[in-house]
Amino acid sequence: MEKYKIDKRTGWEYELKGDYYYPTGRIMKNGVLTLETVDNELEEQYDIGVWGRRHLRFIRQHKKSLYLDLFLSGKLNAYLADVNAQAEEMFARLVKDMAAREGVTEKLKAEDQMYWVQEMNRISALAREIVHHDLIFV
To answer: Could you tell me the pTM of the whole model?
Structure first.
């Protein structure tokens, strides 16, 4: 088998490693190989946070074509940072709304701290499950 192959449709160069061909990051343009940024070293650095890392783990395992498309286009970190920001906003809003709806207030915190902590932990766990279901694991 050849060590290097060039996909005529896309112009991407692939290198044989073991039994599989992997993209090298070089693209053929007008008959000349040029270096393109495939890995995320040159991409702007984003804070992907805990929600972004969870979504990254999910798309790596279950949505491989989406992961590969984002990775090869150099948009993975921006996408994960956006998912993280949406998830943080959704989580904070859910916790605030559910606490207000169920009467878990600062007054309750002053009166019975242990009960307040118990209720806030329950509300946080419920909000976390909603964010996972609606945003992270889709």
So the answer is: 0.67
